[in-house]
Write a structure and sequence with these properties.
359 residues, single chain, alpha+beta, Penicillin V Acylase, Chain A, 18 strands, 18% helix
Length: 359
């Protein structure tokens, strides 16, 4: 048990202490009938983080790690079955959806968050931040229930040197809330925009949108100015000045404008496809986040995986840096009363499959 804990501790600390290589970009799209599709990326440009999907049945028991060096945090049995994507090991679910249609996702939030100080006398009601998504998907059907459960919990880091996270929670209705723990206090924000990246705080990102009110969708046509006969060089010049770097503020702005310019599609399937195309713009090529003296890791992309969730039909879609084909898991096909706990690597071969065309 000790050995497994310290492995988990090392991986958690390693993943959450390198701000130059960790990033997440989340968007929310809606169909013409106002059905919701969530999508987001997970980045890590150091190495393959052994991501996996997990299928968790009702009644499955888990327990949280704590800074004590033990797995002695809150112990819980899943009231609801769920499907999620986890990193490094099964317990660390980063994003997913449960059978009641609640979705939860963890996003990196370095330097701006502050959880409460761990009190070992409260270990039985303590949850590690990397296991909070799993706990809430297992126990909550609504955002209001999320808030209630969080009021009874103590969210901590397994190691005080690791970074912090923030979260988004979404109901099938499309209601979405962002949680940030700042100055040891829970702060909830209704996210009607549906975009989320990383630091700074969510309210700062919304304010920063005001710096880009000059941008327009489509192509802007200019009247002749002193007979200069100006014309656009290429389409979409109304977005000239859109920030193109990989920092969280720039990704937030790009995600917001790409999302707002996207036409509403008739079906959730079309909307899922649209979401993956939008998030193509946020793939991080290996090398651009590394200094010249650093070794470049032997992985194809800094974007380890991209996920989309059809909230209405309860379908989780994903693709990975090793496999650009979109795969999906339909929760409606799963009997969460009888299915065994399942964990499978997203990239079992570590190779991109290619399809030969025969003629």
């Amino acid at each position: 048990m000790k050995a497994k804990f310290y492995l988990a501790l090392f991986l958690c600390l390693f993943l959450f202490s390198h701000s130059e290589v960790q990033a997440c970009t989340g968007i929310t799209l809606r169909t013409q009938d106002n059905l919701t599709v969530l999508a987001r990326t997970v980045e890590w440009a150091k190495e393959d983080i052994n991501s996996r999907y997990v299928i968790v049945p009702r009644g499955h028991i888990q327990q949280s790690y704590t800074p004590d060096g033990k797995k002695n945090g809150i112990k819980f049995a899943a009231k609801y079955g769920y499907v999620g994507l986890a990193v490094t090991q099964d317990e660390f679910v980063i994003d997913g959806i449960n059978e009641k249609g609640l979705s939860a996702g963890l996003f990196y939030f370095p330097d701006y968050g502050e959880y409460e100080t761990y009190d070992s006398t409260k270990h039985a009601t303590t949850i590690g931040d990397m296991q909070l998504v799993a706990y809430l998907l297992a126990n909550c059907a609504t955002i209001d229930q999320v808030k209630y459960h969080l009021s009874q919990l103590h969210v901590v880091r397994i190691d005080p040197r690791a970074s912090t996270a923030h979260w988004r929670f979404t109901e099938p209705s499309g209601r979405q809330v962002v949680l940030e723990i700042i100055d040891q206090q829970l702060h909830y924000y209704e996210n009607t925009l549906g975009v989320l990246t990383n630091a700074p705080d969510f309210q700062w990102h919304l304010t920063n949108l005001n710096n880009y009110t000059n941008l327009h969708f489509g192509t802007v046509k200019y009247n002749d100015i002193k007979q200069l006969h100006l014309q656009a060089i290429g389409g979409g010049n109304g977005m000239h000045g859109l920030p193109g770097d990989m920092t969280p503020p720039s990704r937030f702005i790009r995600a917001a404008f790409y999302q707002l310019s996207a036409p509403e599609m008739p079906t959730t399937t079309q909307t899922v496809t649209q979401a993956f195309h939008i998030l193509n713009n946020f793939d991080i090529p290996i090398g651009i986040q590394h200094n010249s003296q650093e070794d470049i890791p032997n992985i194809p992309s800094g974007t380890q995986w991209t996920i989309a969730i059809d909230m209405h039909n309860q379908i989780l879609y994903f693709r990975t840096m090793y496999n650009a084909n979109i795969r999906r898991i339909k929760l409606q096909d799963i009997d969460f009363a009888s299915v065994p706990f399942t964990s499978r690597l997203l990239n079992p071969t570590g190779q991109q499959p290619f399809e030969d065309i025969n003629w």
